[in-house]
Amino acid sequence: MSNIKHYIDGIRNGGAYFTIDKKMLVESIAFAVINAVYTILFYLVSNWLMMIYSAVSVGIFAGFTTALIKKKKYSATAYVTAIVVTIETILATITSGFSTGFAFYSFVLITSSFYFTYVLKKDKRNDFVPLFLSLLFILIFFANYIIDKVMTAPIYAIENKGFSITFFALNLVICFGATIVFNFLFLWEISLKETTLESQNETLTDMAHKDPLTKLLNRRNMNDFLDKSAEDMKLTGKRFSLILGDIDDFKHVNDTYGHDAGDAVLVNIAEIIRSSVRANDAVCRWGGEEFLILINASGETASNTAERIRKSIENTTIAYKDQEIKVTMTFGLAEAIPGYKVDALIHQADDKLYIGKNSGKNTVII
Questions:
Q1: N- or C-end of the chain: fewer Cβ atoms within 10 A?
Q2: Max alpha carbon distance in the chain (Å)?
């Protein structure tokens, strides 16, 4: 049961189950099986020409097109399939009559031509291919109809009415089923590409707005949050505060444990800070081992937040491979007042941080 669920999830997520190789391979196998059935039926109604052609078609779909798929020659596979099926519809009409329903495969070829052109297209010049092929397959359908009307009788007329109905019903079911499958796959491909595009857009947005290591806001995006808070204060008088933090002796961590360990420390510190602020606050990796925290509240609230973060970091042991790493962090805090520019506020927080570094580190300077 879990394997079935895994398979369905793979299809929904666009996984390996629905690669172009597998889709075309399933199509070739399906045509091989269908033609094997036709080989038997044509033998039963003594249509020797179609029996031989159906048997040869089995070999083409089971061998030749399968080899093309393995060589990644998907367009060639599609064209070979269309040619083989088209010839089969014409020969079946000539030998057994239009009423057997083989001509309906022209409509399946129309649907599949749009689907495979969409899946396989490499440039816009291919956009006219399915339109051209559709017109061609429509002409082939009417050609089958005209051939049936101008013939006195089929070469191997099916005298048994039961077999005649069997051919018609089987072809009708296969054609309807194939059309539904190709339409479903078409919608699935479109949906998958939309999902992929959305995912790529989200990735690009993250790359533009977030630090790739810590997943915090990057400096450029943080400036947008700072400008917004400054504008809100100008309009409403609502205060905000900035906390600038720096990991103490971070160079010693890199020199002692290596830069990968240093990255692990940055990621852990970022998570501690992120989990310690509110949803309307913002956290940024300001540069190197520096973090800038925007608190949309008074200096007192920001001070309590900074102290809580400082203690949490001090009490945290970061495990990296077989090493246990402990670090501390120093913070400088500045509260905005009306008319104060953001750059000046950051400079003020930096001055406080410098004081903290020179007074023993692992502290919050207000």
A1: N
A2: 109
**What's the pLDDT at 5?**
58
Number of Cα atoms under 13 Å in the Cβ half of residue 131: 4
Q: How far apart are CA 47 and CA 167, in angstroms?
A: 13
Sort strands 318-320 and 241-247 into parallel, antiparallel or unpaired: unpaired
pLDDT value, residue 157: 87
Question: Is there a contact between 244 and 290 (Cβ–Cβ < 8 Å)?
Answer: yes
Beta bridge partners of 365: 332
Regions of the chain with pLDDT less than 70: 1-18, 122-127, 207
Say which amino acid occupies 284.
C
State residue 338 phi and psi, 5-degree precision: -55, 135
What is the C-alpha end-to-end distance of the chain, expressed in Å? 61
Report residue 188 as tokens.
Answer: 């699935």
Query: Tell me, what's the pLDDT at 16?
Result: 46
Query: What separation in angstroms does the CA of 267 have from each of 78, 204, 209, 211?
Result: 50, 21, 17, 11
Rounded CA separation 45/125 (Å): 46
SS3 assignment for the chain = CHHHHHHHHHHHCCCHHHCHHHHHHHHHHHHHHHHHHHHHHHHHCCCHHHHHHHHHHHHHHHHHHHHHHHCCCHHHHHHHHHHHHHHHHHHHHHHHCHHHCHHHHHHHHHHHHHHHHHHHCCCHHHHHHHHHHHHHHHHHHHHHHHHHHHCCCCCCCCCCHHHHHHHHHHHHHHHHHHHHHHHHHHHHHHHHHHHHHHHHHHHHHHHHHECCCCCCECHHHHHHHHHHHHHHHHHHCCCCEEEEEEECCHHHHHHHHCHHHHHHHHHHHHHHHHHHCCCCCEEEEEECCEEEEEECCCHHHHHHHHHHHHHHHHCCCEEECCEEECCCEEEEEEECCCCCCHHHHHHHHHHHHHHHHHCCCCCEEC
Please tell me the distance from the alpha carbon of residue 294 to that of residue 280, in angstroms, as a whole number. Answer: 9
The CA distance from 145 to 134, in Å, is 17
Contact 140, 106 (CB under 8 A): yes
Structure tokens at 108: 């399946």
